[in-house]
Amino acid sequence: PLNVLKKTLENTTKWGSVIAQYPMKKHHISRFYWDNRRRLREEVSMDIIFMKTPAFDGSTCEQVFVGLISKMINVYTMPSKAHSYFFKAYQDFMRYEGVPEGLHRDMAPEEKVQKIIDLNRDMMVKDTFAEPGHPNQNFVEALGVKPLKHGAEQLMNRTGADSQAWPWAHQFIADINNRCATPIHGWKTPYSV
Q1: How many Å apart are CA 82 and CA 24, to the nearest integer?
Q2: Is the pLDDT of residue 21 over 70?
Q3: Is the dihedral of CA 62, 63, 68, 74 positive or negative?
Q4: What is the pTM of this model?
Q5: Are 71 and 180 in contact (CB under 8 A)?
Q6: N or C: which terminal CB in the chain sees fewer CB atoms within 10 Å?
Q7: Are 110 and 82 spatial neighbours (Cβ–Cβ below 8 Å)?
């Protein structure tokens, strides 16, 4: 039927390749891969938290992402520090928060994965590393890891929570941080910066 073909073409041709002969034509879908993703307007620093006690779900570590402008903390649990879990945590961050302008990390071998470098190159994300032996150059340690560990320890001690509940305590502390206004941002929350 003709009307079925017309509707099919209307709904599917937007994914067709763009003709480069008409650069001033309005494009609904960009021909550049990185422009079809939601972008963050800040660089992100990341690090891994290792825990001695496995969580209830079997997690042994977490990937922590901190926005360098908004100071927003994002936490993703991982069963181990294997490269594949690290890559999946980074993909989850991009899926839920957006593609950052830059990714700053230390020189840990699990963070120097070729898949991450290739993904950053494809998405036009600036890659920066802290110098070896200088952990203070990775801002996530002071802005994310220490507040998470300290806050979760206090929360779990005061509530009497089991030591295997640390991922949920970290997520709770991160959510509180992300929803509270700070004078650094003119009394705005990290979500609204």
Answers
A1: 46
A2: no
A3: negative
A4: 0.80
A5: no
A6: N
A7: yes
In what side-by-side order are the strands of the sheet with 61-67? 73-78, 61-67, 43-50, 102-105, 126-129
150 neighbors 166 (Cβ within 8 angstroms) = no
The DSSP 8-state label assigned to residue 99 in this structure reads B
Residue 35's nearest CA partner among 116, 156, 123, 127 is 123
| pLDDT of 25 above 80 | no
Distance CA 72, CA 181 (A): 11
Exposure class string for 164-185: b at 16+ Cβ within 10 A, else e? ebbbbbbbbbbeebbeeeeeee
Band of the pLDDT at 187, cuts 50, 70, 90? confident
Q: How far is Cα of residue 59 from the mean position of the Cα atoms in its chain?
A: 18
C-alpha distances out from residue 146 to 37, 150, 161, 163, 170, Å: 31, 6, 20, 18, 11
The encoded tokens of residue 108 equal: 């840990």
Q: Are 148 and 174 in contact (CB under 8 A)?
A: yes
Higher pLDDT, 22 or 147: 147
Q: How far is CA 163 from each of CA 26, 53, 153, 183, rounded to the nearest angstrom?
A: 55, 7, 9, 33
* Whether the predicted pLDDT of 47 surpasses 80: yes
